[in-house]
Design a protein that fits this description.
The structure is a homodimer of 195-residue chains. Chain A is mostly helical. Chain A has a single domain, classed as Tetracycline Repressor, domain 2 (Orthogonal Bundle). Helix content of chain A is 79%, strand content 0%. Chain A is built from nine helices and no strands. In chain A, helix 1 packs across helix 4. The radius of gyration of chain A is 18 Å and the shape is elongated. At the A-B interface, helix 6, helix 7, helix 8 and helix 9 of A face helix 6, helix 7, helix 8 and helix 9 of B.
Chain lengths: 195, 195
């Protein structure tokens, strides 16, 4: 029971860290704010994360990787054409941006940009997160008959476009860049599939 | 003479703020660090930027917008095909990443992600920066015969892909994502130009 409760507190702390990073970045997220946001008792953060902020940030990046990865995975399972899959993912992201009044960005991007020069541990977690999104898109393109090497190159470009479109959309407070990204990627991926 | 010296100090402070934001983000950049990095006298920051960090950050974003804008403008002036122009820009960015041992990211992306929810002034500066890069690419595509509306949509997708590719490259400590972005954009833009 205690362990269950402890696990629940730990999960809430990671959830809060993730949401606060999406909103304000990593450096701008204080651990007291995380504890309050999670409604967790003071001291519980260092009990569950004795290594502190870097360890909690790593868990938040891993959670973001798993969440977005399952979104990509679910979209792929529908067996749609690559362009449709990408459009479906971008539609979900557009919903997240509008529902949050354009206050939430990608936690992996912001942690990469803030901490890439300071924490090899966080940089590595971010590289793994990107890889966990590139891999299923690569598999999708290979399943559609693309050679592995070009499939991986295109999948990396897809993830890059999606990451950038979220940022431009947030800056412009408009989902238009996400739609433009979907149109461009659908054209790129489905044209090639057809060729 | 005093004003010239003052202008030089002010410019050094903006330069240092820009470089430190590229390296560690906005929240992670302290004003004392900026003053030291600029080799400026203590107190000079509040003398030149009485409004403080937000005003200095705005100037840094504007400087980044002008720098990258002139890089895009110079590439466009060469009159190359859109795909070649984009490849040229991405080659320069790859050089910046490798020369900095992958320590420098895009200051506009990181300020958008960290401060978009907190500072309308900085969010607006970032939106203007993206617009200042989207506009010349739109003009380039229009000059190549694309209708204004689709040219703007593609130009926005190009800027999104470039922003995202810089982030994925930094996370992976590899310029491969930048090359993959150049390949994908060249295919997208030049295929369309040909069609």
């Amino acid at each position: 029971m205690a362990t269950t409760k402890g696990a629940a507190t730990s999960a809430r702390l990671v959830e809060s860290m993730l949401e606060l990073i999406q909103r304000n970045g990593y450096a701008g997220t204080g651990l007291n704010t995380v504890t309050e946001h999670a409604g967790a008792p003071k001291g519980s953060l260092y009990f569950h994360f004795p290594e502190g902020k870097e360890a909690l940030g790593e868990k938040a990046v891993e959670l973001a990787a798993a969440r977005f990865g399952s979104l990509v995975g679910d979209s792929v399972l529908e067996g749609a054409a690559p362009g449709q899959v990408v459009r479906g993912v971008l539609d979900v992201l557009a919903g997240i941006l509008t529902d949050s009044d354009f206050q939430l960005g990608c936690p992996v991007s912001v942690v990469t940009l803030e901490m890439g020069a300071q924490s090899e541990r966080l940089r590595f977690a971010c590289a793994n997160a990107f890889e966990s999104w590139i891999a299923p898109v690569t598999d999708l393109l290979v399943a559609r008959g693309r050679p592995e090497s070009t499939a991986r190159a295109r999948a990396t470009a897809v993830v890059s476009m999606v990451e950038g479109a979220v940022i431009v959309s947030r800056a412009q407070r408009s989902t238009e860049p996400l739609r433009f990204a979907a149109d461009a990627l659908a054209l790129l991926l489905d044209q090639e599939a057809a060729s």
